[in-house]
Amino acid sequence: MLDIYTLMRNWFNWSFENPKLIKPSHTALYFFCIEHCNRLGWKSQFGLPTEMAKEAIGIRSYNTYKDTFEDLEKFGFIKVIERSKNQYSSNIIALSKNDKAFNKALDKALMKHTSKQRESTRQSNDSIDIQLYNNTNLQIYNEEDFFIMSENKVSGSATFFVLNNYMTYIESMLMNFGNQNVSMQRFIDNFMLNYPNGAVFSDEKHLRNTVKSSIKVLAATPIPIEKTKYVSQIPAEENKW
Predict the structure, then answer these.
(1) Are 94 and 79 in contact (CB under 8 A)?
(2) Which residue did the predictor score with more confidence, 141 or 162?
(3) Residue 226 lies inside a defined structural domain of this protein
(4) How do residues 45-61 score in pLDDT, each as one tens digit?
(5) Average pLDDT over residues 28-32
(6) Which of 100, 94, 87, 23 lies closest to 50 in space, CA to CA?
(7) 8, 86: one domain
(8) Residue 124: inside a domain, yes or no?
(9) Sign of the CA dihedral 73, 74, 76, 77?
């Protein structure tokens, strides 16, 4: 059975050994395929809608997307079961482990780096856990909250809805447009503030575009530096001037 950790490990092993072939778009598209397969319950074959995938990873050009998709097939990480008839239909694909024998160059490099880090810091962690966003713990759902989409009333806040349904899209937008200064928490705080109870969206595309534009605005807005009031260290009786 496929699992996300094995797929990720195999991908980065291969990428590390083939740096001249890899582009950021390859990683983005492959990881979106993994996430989409995961949400579908790890089906052996599944449809990958072209426009949805393009929007999720921030690729506008169909030709760029097509080249990226075909590269993943050529690299051996996806298997095309049925090709889409045009850019508005889905390719039917299957994920491949591509678990050929690698020379473990990445493992060796990481071990060397870890060894140096231990010598300099004298401390290390046995493992690194991938952070998971457990939406039920985000304390942003209130039964009295609602928002309007396509003229229908939807229970819960708009923020809770996008985190529950568009997490992969949000992470992709943060990666592509966040300029490394927009954290997930900053996005959540800003979205809750600007789209409170009763917010109105014409449809899901409008909601996704709102997420994207919110991240772009945050990326262009400097993080405010908190100013502290200067407190004189001179005793009051001596500070007569």
Answers:
(1) yes
(2) 162
(3) no
(4) 999 999 889 999 999 99
(5) 94
(6) 87
(7) yes
(8) no
(9) negative
- Buried/exposed 53-69: b ≥16 CB within 10 Å, e otherwise: bbbbbbbeeeeebeebb
- The larger pLDDT score, comparing residue 34 to residue 126, is at 34
Asked, for residue 201, whether it belongs to a domain, the answer is: yes
> 67 and 143 in one domain?
no
| Contact (Cβ atoms closer than 8 angstroms) between residue 37 and residue 46 | yes
Same-domain check for residues 139 and 196: yes
Q: What is the pTM of this model?
A: 0.47
Summarised one tens digit per residue, pLDDT across range 63-86 is 999 999 999 999 999 999 999 888
Q: How many domains does the chain have?
A: 2
Rounded distance, CA 52 to CA 73, Å?
19
Distance CA 144, CA 132 (A): 27
Domain extent for 199: 135-219
Q: Nearest-CA neighbor of 81 among 117, 37, 112, 114?
A: 37
Q: Looking up tokens 């009333």, which residue turns up?
A: 153
Would you give the end-to-end CA distance of the chain in angstroms?
77
Residues 11 and 68 in one domain: yes
Edge-to-edge order in the sheet of strand 200-201: 152-155, 146-149, 200-201
Tokens of 184: 């997930």
CB atoms < 10 A from the CB of 201, how many? 19
Whether 147 is covered by a domain: the verdict is: yes
